[in-house]
Amino acid sequence: MVKISRPEPNEYDQFYSDYLSELGDIDPFEHLRLQSKSLIKIFSVLTDKQAEYSYAEGKWSLKEVLGHLIDGERIFCYRALSIARGESQSLPGFEQNDYVREGNFNLRKVSDLIDDYKICREATTRLFGSFDKETFLRMGKANNKNISVRAILYIILGHEKHHMNILREKYLKT
Fold first, then answer.
1. Fewer CB atoms < 10 Å away: N or C end of the chain?
2. Domain extents for the chain?
3. pTM for this prediction
């Protein structure tokens, strides 16, 4: 895999700044592996009933958070693939609350969601592992905002870290 550095601020919309600032200086490929291991460890001990817990009315359950992470990673990977292959059109945004509602994640077994996450993370690792240095620097548009392929990788990592911090604070109290 190519060694890549952190994206420059002009490679992503400032909306994602908090996600990237949480990461520090990392090896993104090692971080993909470590994050996956940590998330699986947390979710694999939950029963289906425990994973349906939400800390407040109108907040996502643990299953819904996991489903959101899977959906988000899939969408970000589609964006990375499209830009890597030279797509010149702006890729669409998505309304996360609609996706979670339509995902019916609370009706699924937590073990099935974990399996989906593992498959998704493996596909993410393979996709980004297939890119050369020039591809990581390629710019495109998503939701009418400029973004690079390497920024998308870092956003995937920062997005998951953001949600895992919320899980630890609001759901798991660890």
1. C
2. 9-172
3. 0.95
